[in-house]
Structure formats: C-alpha cells, structure tokens
Design goal:
Helix content of chain A: under 10%
Number of helices of chain A: 0
Largest sheet of chain B: 7 strands, mixed
Oligomer: heterodimer
Shape of chain B: globular
Helix content of chain B: under 10%
Structural class of chain A: mainly beta
Structural class of chain B: mainly beta
Radius of gyration of chain B: 13 Å
Shape of chain A: globular
Strand content of chain A: over 45%
C-alpha cells in the first residue's frame, strides 16, 4: 500500500527566506505527483504536477523535483512571502490506480 | 468556467439523518471523485467515477452511496449519518488515461459536515 510522508509537519520562516518542503513515498511505481496548497477552511489549489518521466517542474517562485528511484519529491519556494503561509500537500498517483494518496501536509508560516 | 462546485458549504445533521452532498464540474471531465479530510489522517478516497453510469469504491466507502447519471454531476449520499462521518468532504475531477489519473486533479471548495 502506498504511503506518503511529509516532513516537517510545520515550518516557520522569516519573510524572504528560501525553503524546501519534503515529500516521500513508499511505492516508486508512481504515474505522477502533485503538489497542492490549502488555505485554512478552503479547498485545494493545484500548484505543480510532475509526471513520472520528469525530473522537475517550475512555476514562478515554485520548483518541484522528483526522484522516483529514491521515492522523494521536494517543493522549493524562493523568496518566501507572508502570502505563502498555508498548508502544502503532496499527493501521488500510482500507475493503474484511480486514487491519489495524500501526505498529511506541511503547515508553513512565513513571518513578516 | 466555474471549475468544480460543491453545495452546501456547511451542514449540521443529527445521527440517523440522510442527506446528499452535491458536486458539479464544467470541464467535461470523465473522472470525478469524493475525498474526506480528517485531522491527522490526510485526505482519503471515498468513491470515484470514470464516466456516466460507472462508479467504484475507494478506500473508505462504508456509509456512502454515489451515482453518476451525467458527466457534470456526481452527488454523494449519506444514508444514515453517524458522528464518525463528521469531516470535510471534497469533490475532484480530472482526466484519465487508461487506468490511471493522467493529469492534475481539480478540487472543489469543500463541504464541512458535522453530525451530532
């Protein structure tokens, strides 16, 4: 059974700092991996999707990398801003499955 | 383009009551799904559908029913609500390829359900 772990569970950084969020998964036979952002009391907003054949994806200040063989993905946020404060979720889709398996998330606080 | 919409946003039920959570999407996605989010548990798949008339169970299907009569709508029914079904429910839609989720999944804003 696929398991997804996100470390740390919570992170507090000063504004302007670059930071890395980690996601690890137990079954390397993934089809793709998706990073989401969730604001308190809100739904999930898709940030980046990485297909299994890709190594990284970039969108603005966000960069996500994927290492299938080691079962890891990282989300890099450059020059963090208070508006980046949210919970970040990692989810993987195993090939042949219609299910996304989610991690429990990393709660990020960016302090002005 | 409204994306994925859910109604209601909030609901309070008494134990034993039934209700239907509504979900609609306007992106012509064949795949739709329901997840529940509980503190410390992450999101878990309840049911999903790969097209009109086709549904299947996810990880935690007990106590819930679904049907899919149109591409746009995928309602979730609670037959006899229990306190253990207190949760936040999210509907999602996306594109499939073969037997997998091809591309990004789009999520609705959620329904916050409390069962007393």
């Amino acid at each position: 059974k696929q398991e997804v772990t996100q470390i740390p569970a919570a992170l507090s950084v000063p504004e302007g700092e670059n930071l890395v969020l980690n996601c690890s998964f137990t079954d390397s036979a993934i089809y793709n991996l998706q990073w989401f952002r969730q604001d308190p009391g809100k739904g999930l907003t898709s940030l980046l999707l990485i297909q299994s054949s890709q190594r990284e994806q970039t969108s603005g200040r966000l960069n996500a990398s994927l290492d299938k063989s080691s079962g890891r993905s990282t989300l890099y946020i450059a020059a963090s801003q208070p508006g980046d404060s949210a919970t970040y979720l990692c989810a993987v889709n195993v090939a042949g499955s219609y299910q996304l398996t989610f991690g429990k998330g990393t709660k990020l606080s960016v302090i002005p | 383009n409204a994306g994925v919409t859910q109604t209601p946003k909030f609901q309070v039920l008494k134990t034993g009551q039934s209700m239907t959570l509504q979900c609609a999407q306007d992106m012509n996605h064949e795949y739709m799904s329901w997840y529940r989010q509980d503190p410390g548990m992450g999101l878990r798949l309840i049911h999903y559908s790969v097209g009109a008339g086709i549904t299947d169970q996810g990880e935690v299907p007990n106590g819930y029913n679904v049907s899919r009569s149109t591409t746009e709508d995928f309602p979730l029914r609670l037959l006899s609500a229990a306190p253990s079904q207190t949760s936040v429910y999210f509907c999602a839609s996306g594109v499939t390829s073969g037997s997998t989720l091809y591309n990004e999944q789009f999520f609705g804003p959620g329904t916050r359900l409390t069962v007393l």
